[in-house]
Prior knowledge:
Elements: E1 8-18, H1 24-35, E2 39-46, E3 49-59, E4 81-89, E5 98-106, E6 127-135, H2 142-152, E7 168-177, H3 184-187, H4 192-199, E8 208-215, E9 221-231, H5 233-239, E10 247-252, E11 268-274, H6 286-306, H7 340-357, H8 361-372, H9 379-386, H10 390-399, E12 404-407, E13 410-413, H11 416-448, H12 453-464, E14 468-472, E15 475-482, H13 488-505, H14 510-514, E16 517-522, E17 525-529, E18 538-541
Parallel strand pairs: 15-16
Antiparallel strand pairs: 1-6, 1-7, 2-3, 3-4, 4-5, 5-6, 7-11, 8-9, 9-10, 10-11, 12-13, 14-15, 16-17, 17-18
Helix pairs in contact: 7-11, 8-9, 8-11, 9-10, 11-12, 12-13
Amino acid sequence: MTVYVETAPHEFTANFLFNDRGLFPFFATDRRVKRGGGSALTTFSYDDEEWQARLSYQESGLENPGDTTPQGTRFDIETMREYRLNVRSLGDPVGQRKFNVHLTPRWPGMKSKGGAEIPVPEGLGEGVNLRLSGANIEFDEYLPLIRCAFGAVGIQPGYFSEPHPYSNVQDAERYVRLHREVSGPIHARDGPIARLGHLLENDRSGYRKVVQNDQTERGEPLPGYYHTVTLGQERIQEAMPSHELPKEIKHYYARKAFPNDHPLSHPKLGASYQVNRWDGKIGVSDEDLEQLSRELDETVLSTLANSQIDLRPGANTYITDAFFSASESDRDRELVEFNTTRIKQNQESVVIKHIADGLSPVEWESLEMLVTDGGNVSPNKIAEQYGRHPDSVRRALDRIDDLVDRSYDDVSLRSSYTGDLVHNAVENARYATRRATEAAAKAIEAAERGLDEKTSAFVAWAATHGININERNDGMTLRLGRLDRDNHRREVRRILREGLRLWEQANRDPAIYRSGNYRYWYEELEHDLHSIDADLVTKTVCGPVWKTIR
Length: 550
């Protein structure tokens, strides 16, 4: 097994629901607090570590159900309260290895004091919810610690034996602390955080978000101060197909300034679970917590690997702090490679296909506006900008649906990387047009001086009709400009015959001209030419198709 550095747990938030004993845990907690005069404080030992537990109460916003709950359970509590159990490690010198439990009752039909119904999962029945928020404790240690802590303050640990399947994790993070001299590749412009956000950008199908902040709250410049990329389930699976959970990858420094020789003056690299970025959930069973820990662990390791940072523990790479030991891991982990290369190649191939096949004027105009407007426009706005009919724009967008994401009134490029490729194509097309115009001007100038007059006439003819000519060893391609809707067939005959005449007058081989590839457009519809003779016929198609004239 390859040896990797061991990541450390950081934040963790979860809802532990218990219904095996109904409301008994709530009633028992109420009695214990009253017996202790409003609180209870004690210590206990867990896994050779000393802990302190403090039980207290707070006023409740829940409506008292009266003598009985809607299910008929006797309710002898006059004043509604909720309860807090604060647990912290006594062996932690910085006081940050701890958790807090907020215990509230649950029963179907429960309401707030204002009369609003409180959602209770269907099928849960009566029970309690333990909302836990902690830090710097392994995820699978929280439940044993909950039992020990409640037992220590005088409440039966058996009440918290088996969490209900509706229990769920809300937040979790694992991290490593890196030496500030080696972490640069992670937050660099071509580093994994930027590349994942850049290549997987999509604000309408799935979710991604990139934050790149190189300035502290004090206004001081600090490269990599807070760089994150957040990927929803769809996006994370494009980067890491074996993973399921949505995550945030972040490189960040402590908000407080520390001396250079202090461990906290060096940045963290963390991966955290993002519960709001999918419709699923991760529970608190052993299997779920193992998956959670594994995916976060592998995401951190993969980010390091994609930054070419050594994954083995080393003093020049990793910095030990109170909770991260920079030690070798005994976990069986596989290194998961980010598929940014595959994603990049897929996006390139899509753009290249459309550029090679040719784009209609409406498609060009739509892409150009998406690039220049940042990719957040409507078909109507594109139509208004270029004097098109909105239906023409929508049909054009349908033909390039693998370049864009769209709903009826909202269009965006699939990613900023696609946007860069399209932008380059648009610029190249503009440059090609400028080159053709310059070539035509030079040809006319040459003709005026009596130089190569016949060649100049052919080039001038192409420039006049907006024809792009590409002649190679294996043949030639002529792209005709936009033609009038009513007379396009007659125009094609006239223009191509005129071109053939000028081509022959320039002493060029007519067979090359006749066997070339030709395309013309009117409105948003493409027409393939099957003949340039008197019996010219055209075929209207809905997508780019090249035909060779024989």
